[in-house]
Amino acid sequence: MEILSLMITKAETNGLIEGIKLSWQSPAISHLLYVDDSLLCLRLTPASCESLRSSLNNFSSISGQMIKHQKSYIKFSPNTSSDFKEHILDILQVQPKQNFGLYLGIPIDLGRRKTSAFQFLLDKIFTKILSWGPSKFSQVAKLILINSILLASVAYVAFILPIPQQITSKINYLIKIFWWKKAHNKYAQH
Q1: How many CA atoms lie within 13 A of 171 on its CB side?
Q2: What is the number of structural domains in the chain?
Q3: Which of 37, 38, 40, 45 is nearest to 28 (CA)?
């Protein structure tokens, strides 16, 4: 993957592709790599797509690794014209996708409605609590379940992204009900 990173960086240095900036002061990001996954963040033009495709083909021939086009996706900015999208999709041979969902348990593209992006945390906690059935646990056992399972799953996400206040309030509500109540029908207000 280091070779792929160098090839993309070289194409960027030569002005063949252009990364995107998250703010005016930030450096441009053209690619993020993790194990065998790649996220390319580029300002696309037909010429930059050809350069990208050439770099990817060179990488494949050098490394022997093939790109799985059926597992590769592209997300366009909302103001991209349909004709341009079709042209780019034809060059890169990938599928368009509106939302990339989760990667390693973290939402990739949050958008403006951040509370809906974190709904999965509420669903996870709600499902866990319901799976434990009518609570016959002691307070000590409940405390262990809350700390080791419920809060641990939230802490992982909160370490990387700020969780909206509305979501944390609902999580606290579910945990309080689990702590104090015995019948699982009380969770239906989730």
Answers
A1: 25
A2: 2
A3: 40
pLDDT of residue 104: 76
> 35 Cβ partners below 8 Å, 6+ apart?
1
Residue 189 has pLDDT above 80, yes or no: no
Q: Answer yes or no: do 41 and 79 share one domain.
A: yes
Nearest to 171 by CA among 182, 160, 157, 185: 157
Mean pLDDT of 69-85: 86
12 and 33, same domain (yes or no): yes
The full length of the chain comes to 190
Domain that holds residue 185: 111-189
Amino acid at 144: I
Residue 121 CA from chain centroid, whole number: 14
Q: Tell me the CA end-to-end span of the chain in Å, nearest whole number.
A: 44
Mean pLDDT of all residues belonging to the chain: 84
How many whole angstroms from its chain centre is CA 31? 15
Q: Are residues 69 and 141 in the same domain?
A: no
Q: Are residues 88 and 151 in the same domain?
A: no
9 and 73 part of one domain? yes
Contact criterion met (CB below 8 Å) for 125 and 168: no
